[in-house]
Amino acid sequence: MMYWHAASWVAALAVLGSVVLGNPSATIPRQAGLPIPASCPGVTATSRYTLAAAEGWRYTLLATGLTKPRGLIFDTEGHLLVLEAGKGLTAHTLGSNGCISSSRVVISMAQLNHGLALSADGKTVYVSSSPTAWSYAYDATTMTATNQTVIVKGMNPGGHNSRTLAVSPKNPNLLLVSLGSNGNIDGPAVVKETGRAIVKVFDLSQVPAGGYTYNTQGWYLGYGLRNEIALVFDGNSMVWGVENSGDDLTRVAAGGGKSVDVHIDNPAEELNYLGDPSVSNEKWYGYPTCWTVGDPSVIKDKTFKVGQQFMISPNTTFDDASCAAKSTPPRLAIKAHSAPIDGKFDKDYSNMYVSLHGSWNRQPATGYKVIQIPFRKLKSGDYDPVAPQDSGTGYSDVLWTQNEGSCSSSSCLRPTGVLFHPDYSRMYVASDGSIGELYILYKA
Ligand SMILES: *[C@@H]1O[C@H](CO)[C@@H](O)[C@H](O)[C@H]1NC(C)=O
Ligand SMILES: *[C@@H]1O[C@H](CO)[C@@H](O)[C@H](O)[C@H]1NC(C)=O
């Protein structure tokens, strides 16, 4: 059955309270600005899964039938730009009811697969394929892009192939480009000059003719980062990375012995503090040697806390203590195999919202949801998660698939891009699963 269970759809509508059943354009009134639609005309759920939202939150399906939507951003005219992997860049006009009233293709290019960023003035759009990042002159009035120019070239074409792009709000001449590892355990990537498992920063005001070469130019925003897909700016324009960590890990105690499967809850996915992109950060975050403990109980040869780092096979020259001395551990551990894709802070930087694409290497499955990580501002002025570093539970679910444990990539929500509306009245959530949806998620 390819439709939502009617009962759960009605239940979802019932939760929406003020909805007038039978009136598809009924909206929940807001004090000002764009209304929040409770449903959108002609948009019907065709997924077989049922979503649920945390108390105080609601969601509305805005669109289906997009081609693997990934990056989301608003242009200066309030159009929602969506990077559709394998298709290109599309622009979506929001009608006065808050639903999508029209859509157009801005860039038709099958190689585009994830990255999307806009310059501070909104006049340049950045998009990426696996090996290349380009800029285009962008006209928000006509939603057209012209003058394709290579900004970064020569990125590793294999392995993890999304290239997250982000423009620093505080230093709008800085473009961040994340590049993951070539595989699960990419040995050579322990050296940052390999140009993998790193985040790099490039000065947009000095792009050389033909573009920067990824491996040899620009500067670092950390290395030993297996696949830092989500790059998130806090209120000081400092960067947080959310990392997709390894699969199928085992542990052999120091001195040898039996290999123990620890992979169900290890290694944890990571929330890493990468810091100020205007200066080179050459800290090593551990990959591919030091992995973050998610569940210490299955590593029986040694006592760990959640969030500390362990080796698969400690030896006489490098062991878990070497990890503690040399690697920068994550600020927060996130459940293993959740697959974080994107993140955004709310208006006052008191929460970071992160999309978890969902696991393939864990039974029962996990992820397939959007989480909220509470943050606070320290006396120093820095932003920091509320939960301590050894908390494995420093976040909560906001929007999730009800049968999370039995989810597969084709049968559940696959959240990718998350983006607040410019007035922070709602969050847009893309899902690149079987039906390519766009939702709004909002407090009500
Ligand atoms: C195209 O972009 C390049 C690089 O930003 C710039 O030097 C050039 O002037 C632009 N060409 C046009 C026709 O706008
Ligand atoms: C110990 O492990 C480290 C880190 O993986 C590696 O670089 C080193 O070659 C290993 N040493 C021995 C003696 O196996």
Which secondary structure elements does this structure contain, and how are they paired or packed?
Blueprint: H1 6-15, E1 27-28, E2 36-37, E3 51-53, E4 57-63, E5 69-74, E6 80-84, E7 88-94, E8 100-108, E9 116-118, E10 124-128, E11 133-139, E12 144-153, E13 165-167, E14 174-179, E15 198-203, E16 212-213, E17 219-223, E18 228-233, E19 239-243, E20 250-251, E21 260-261, E22 269-275, E23 281-284, E24 291-292, E25 309-310, H2 320-326, E26 332-334, E27 340-345, E28 351-356, E29 369-377, E30 383-385, E31 396-401, E32 415-420, E33 427-431, E34 437-443
Parallel strand pairs: 12-16, 17-23
Antiparallel strand pairs: 1-2, 3-31, 4-34, 5-6, 6-7, 7-8, 9-10, 10-11, 11-12, 13-14, 14-15, 15-17, 18-19, 19-22, 20-21, 22-26, 24-25, 27-28, 28-29, 29-30, 29-31, 32-33, 33-34
This protein binds 2-acetamido-2-deoxy-beta-D-glucopyranose (NAG) (2 copies).
Rg measurement, Å: 22 Å
Please report the number of helical segments.
2
Please report the first level of CATH classification, the CATH class: Mainly Beta
Structural class: mainly beta
- How many domains? 1
Keywords: Signal
Domain Pyrroloquinoline quinone-dependent pyranose dehydrogenase beta-propeller: 53-443
Signal peptide: 1-22
Protein name: Soluble quino protein glucose/sorbosone dehydrogenase
Describe this structure in words.
This is Soluble quino protein glucose/sorbosone dehydrogenase. Residues 53-443 form the Pyrroloquinoline quinone-dependent pyranose dehydrogenase beta-propeller domain. The protein is mostly beta strands and 444 residues long. It has one domain (6-443): Neuraminidase. It is built from two helices and 34 strands. It has helices spanning 6-15, 320-326, and strands spanning 27-28, 36-37, 51-53, 57-63, 69-74, 80-84, 88-94, 100-108, 116-118, 124-128, 133-139, 144-153, 165-167, 174-179, 198-203, 212-213, 219-223, 228-233, 239-243, 250-251, 260-261, 269-275, 281-284, 291-292, 309-310, 332-334, 340-345, 351-356, 369-377, 383-385, 396-401, 415-420, 427-431, 437-443. The strands form nine sheets. Strands 3, 27, 28, 29, 30 and 31 form a six-stranded antiparallel β-sheet that branches. A hairpin with a 4-residue loop joins strand 11 (133-139) and strand 12. The radius of gyration is 22 Å and the shape is globular. The chain binds 2-acetamido-2-deoxy-beta-D-glucopyranose (2 copies). One 2-acetamido-2-deoxy-beta-D-glucopyranose (NAG) is lined by residues 289, 315-318.
